[in-house]
Each structure stands twice: as structure tokens, then as C-alpha cells.
Amino acid sequence: MATAQAELQKDSTLEDIEALTIALLDEVKVNYVERIADEDVEAMQQRNYELYETTRKLGRK
């Protein structure tokens, strides 16, 4: 009986570890995607600023 209980406990522990691992990987994925999205926004803002400056300089000529 103790062996069956130990097996059930081991299975439960493995399921808990698996669930926590999946949750961690999901969190890493979300953070990675958010960081990439933030970098893309910053790059677009920089490009818009450069285009604005170029057109402003051309308008003064």
C-alpha cells in the first residue's frame, strides 16, 4: 500500500513539475514577444523621426 501511495505522490509531483515548467515557458515566451514588439516600436519611432528630419531639411532648401 505504501508503494502505491508513493507512486501516486511521484506522479502528482511530476504533474506539478510539468505544469510549472509549462507556465514558466509560457511566461518566457510572452516576455520575449513583448520585448521584440517594444524594439520594433522603438525602431519605427526612430525611423519616423529620421524621415521627419529629412523632410524638414528638404523643406528649408
Describe what this molecule looks like in 3D:
It is a single chain. The chain is an all-alpha fold and 61 residues long. Helix content is 97%, strand content 0%. The chain has one helix at residues 2-60. It starts with a helix and ends with a helix.
Short description:
With 61 residues, the chain is an all-alpha fold.
Tell me the series of helices and strands, N- to C-terminal.
H
Mean pLDDT: 87
Structural class: mainly alpha
Amount of helix: over 70%
**Total beta strand runs:** 0
Q: Beta fraction of the residues?
A: under 5%
Mass-distribution shape? rod-shaped
How is the biggest beta sheet arranged?
A: none
DSSP helical segment count? 1
Radius of gyration: 26 Å
Q: What low-confidence regions span 5 or more consecutive residues with pLDDT below 50?
A: none
Give the N-to-C terminal Cα separation: 91 Å
How would you describe this structure in keywords?
single chain, 61 residues, mainly alpha, 1 helix, rod-shaped
SSE map:
Layout: H1 2-60
